[in-house]
Amino acid sequence: MVTKLLHTRYRVKDLEKTVDFYKNVLGLQEIRRHTSGRGSQLVFFKAPGSDEEIEICKFDESGPVIVGPDLTHLAFEVDDLEKFAGESAAKGYPLSDGPHKTSGGSAIAFIDAPEGYEIELIQRGKDL
């Protein structure tokens, strides 16, 4: 029986550009990095307040990285969506969609990470 989600992996072509995005735009903490037994370069991240990790993988032998539209995304809670949007835009990552208000009073928006992976940002409504 499955008991816990440990990590989610995204494969990329430009490892250092993606690492910079996760650290300096999203503010995630780099937990560890190493090379796997088959030669994959791996970097693990963690968001504050979360147990699950994100694994960023560079493994050129698997062929090109092709991210289709609406294939997958990661969702992160932010405390101030407007402030985050301004800071990420100043770093070259403007919102790609939103913000949109939800019926529950939350706001959601999206930015595109390097290589086309989508990141959802959610500011919870005060009543939630």
Average pLDDT over all residues: 93
Distance between the termini: 32 Å
Q: Major β-sheet, in short?
A: 4 strands, mixed
Across the major sheet, the strand order is 1-4-3-2
Top-tier CATH class of the largest domain: Alpha Beta
- CATH-defined topology of the largest domain: 2,3-Dihydroxybiphenyl 1,2-Dioxygenase, domain 1
How large a portion of the residues is in β-strands, by DSSP E?
A: 35-45%
Rounded to an integer in angstroms, the radius of gyration calculated over CA atoms is 16 Å
Tell me the total number of β-strands.
8
Q: What is the string of SSEs from the N terminus onward?
A: EHEEEEHEEE
CATH superfamily of the largest domain: 2,3-Dihydroxybiphenyl 1,2-Dioxygenase, domain 1
Uncertain spans = none
What's the number of structural domains?
A: 2
Under the CATH scheme, which architecture of the largest domain would be assigned?
Roll
Helicity, as a percent range: 10-25%
**Counting H and I runs of at least 4 residues, what is the number of helices?**
2
Structural class: alpha/beta
Report what the structure shows.
- This protein folds into two domains: 1-59, 2,3-Dihydroxybiphenyl 1,2-Dioxygenase, domain 1, CATH 3.10.180.10; 70-128, Roll (2,3-Dihydroxybiphenyl 1,2-Dioxygenase, domain 1).
- The protein starts with 6 loop residues before the first strand and ends in a 5-residue tail after the last strand.
- It has helices at residues 15-25, 81-90, and strands at residues 7-11, 29-35, 41-46, 53-58, 73-77, 95-101, 107-112, 118-123.
- 16% of the residues lie in helices and 38% in strands.
- The protein contains two helices and eight strands; from the N terminus they run βαββββαβββ.
- By secondary structure, the chain is an alpha/beta fold.
- Strands 1-4-3-2 form a four-stranded mixed beta sheet, covered by helices on one side. It has a four-stranded mixed beta sheet with strand order 5-8-7-6, covered by helices on one side.
